Amino acid sequence: MADIAAPVSSSAAVTLEEKPRSAGGVAKAILGSFLLRRVLRAFLTVFFVSTLIFFLVRLMPGDPVQVYINQQMTQYGYSYEDAANQARSLFAIDTDQPKLLQYLDYLKNLASGDLGMSLTAAGTSVSSIILSRIWWTVFSVGTALLLSFALGSLIGMLMAYRRGGLFDGVMTTVGSLLSSVPNYILALLVIVLFGVRWEIIPYTKMRGSYSSGVHPGWNFEFFWDAIYHAILPISVYVLTTIGGWMLLMKSSTISALEEDFVTAARARGIPEWRVLIFYVGRNAILPLFTTLTISIGFVAGGSLLVEPIFQYQGIGSRLYESINQRDYPTLQGIFLVITISVVIANLLADLLYSRLDPRIRSKG
Amino acid sequence: MVDTALNTESAVADPLDAAPTVDKKPFWRIFVERNKLGTFGLVLLLLILLLTFIGPFFVDGNVKTDVSKIYAQPEFWGHPLGYDHSGRDIWAQIVNGGRSLIVVATVAAFIGTFIGVTFGALSAMLPGKFDTIALTVTDVVLTVPSIILLAVLAAFIKLDSAFLLILVLSVTAWPTLLLAVRAQVLSLKEREYVEAARMLDLGMARILFREVLPNMASYIIINLVFHISGAIYGQVILYFLGLVSFSGTNWGLMIQDAFRRGAVFNADSIMGLLAPMFMIVLLLWSLTLIARSLEDVFNPRLREL
């Protein structure tokens, strides 16, 4: 045995020895390096995206900064100097310097939170636009993610326990259909059918992020109003993602049900509900966390179309407007901020996962 | 499961004879028997393909605007879905509006699959710098919300040809596959037959194409189907955002047109919006059903349960 698979077994022995036996200090060091690795990776992602934006803005043919300068010169008769000065303040990029210096300057501005000025909303900085919008999206998308994850995995677990039954059959069909309906199409359907045709949902009243008479603050009235206005986008996010969670949890539960420790637990006479929740459920839900990180980005991306359809005043609808109006500084700022938000959310999900499943810490 | 199969077979004939008869069943019969939903999806997809690829020979796609027919009522023969906001026949647009959508998505998915398989296998075979770089890039693309990335790329790059559209769509289609192929190759690398091939000094390309990839064929095919539906999803978004600047009849364009013209809020014009949405949902649903059933068939562990 040892002769045949010499390289494999020796490497396995090394990893075994590296594993912390019991010393808390060693375990902590590994967790620390895991955290460090993840944080580093998060920073790297943000850095890559900023670089991509710079590349798109400055190095592509037909670069928007040059287009803007030319436009100012031909339309308003500015001199090149004036136009370039304006572009500099709007894009937070100095066009006169060499490209490499521009790039470094741009990174420095980003690090200090300067994202430039909006082209269409004169005199408004991109960061103030983003700050006024982002929390609505964080609220609606975050709520939807948690709801969909919780409900979906619960239904998926029930499907696995009753597999082959009527509930399983119906939910498998419904789940596959729901997971293949794009969120923007469901949003349009809600308005076209329930809003306009059957007039069940007062979608005109539910527009915006809150009603005009209500003032933001820590009171029940505002809170209730914010939820009321977020109901439509949240339901769309939940309905379009829940199918995926259901089916994933079902197959994950089925394979967890087969594990030896489940049989052992049953043999020991542990009550069935305890086995199902603490032995099967806990282990079945673990693999879902890796998908959760992908889902965060997916739902955040969905806000790009769902928010403008419902006229919800979040960051997605603002991005939609800036794409339509070719407001490049706002566009790149929102792209960056959404990326940073998703990276942070991913980091949190990763850390939570590593808490729940210690095995992941050593694997990285 | 295995025990019961052996018992019933041995009652009829020698178990050694019986085992091959189970395997002899053609692949499609296993598929149909095991997956009623998958078969339904396959039939649905074939019908959609028939409509969008053969249909245009019978229904003229050159729809003309006709002011007298704006939101006109449907006629059962010839114009079953009525007319849109410019008086164009909706049925003719539906028949002619799926072809480019499907072709572009399929090509983009193939390119994405090619990138994922090639670089996934390479990074597993070449540990070290290449692997680290490939993993980092994958991680970045995987983290950035693909829809946003797609929209921002399309906003900066003018998508005026099908080629550029395909290129942008394939940018987001490879990361998950790359990771999966890499993981699979890494685990296959340790198996005896690959080890044996390596000891015979058969060369990396040969090991990859002869030993590793055939083992992953099912996985790659399933991923391809998922990527086709992903590319359709992304493509419709780009049309919806008005970022695709070459024209033609297209379901995505129909939705965008109807939305921009306020057809959403006009009860008479519902067909112009519902019909393309219905087609897209059916297409995506059929692809999802097929992919999931292929998973069932190729993954015996799931099938037996």
Structure description:
The complex is a heterodimer of chains A (364) and B (305). With 364 residues, chain A is an all-alpha fold. Helix content of chain A is 77%, strand content 0%. Chain A has helices at 6-18, 24-59, 64-76, 80-91, 99-111, 126-161, 166-180, 183-197, 220-257, 260-267, 272-285, 288-310, 315-324, 328-356, 359-363. Chain A is globular, with a radius of gyration of 26 Å. Chain B has 305 residues and is mainly α. Chain B folds into two domains: 25-59 and 246-305, no CATH class; 103-228, no CATH class. Helix content of chain B is 73%, strand content 0%. Chain B is built from 15 helices and no strands. The longest helix of chain B has 37 residues, at 204-240. The relative contact order of chain B is 0.14. Classes of the chains: A mainly alpha (364), B mainly alpha (305). The interface between A and B is large, with 57 and 51 residues.
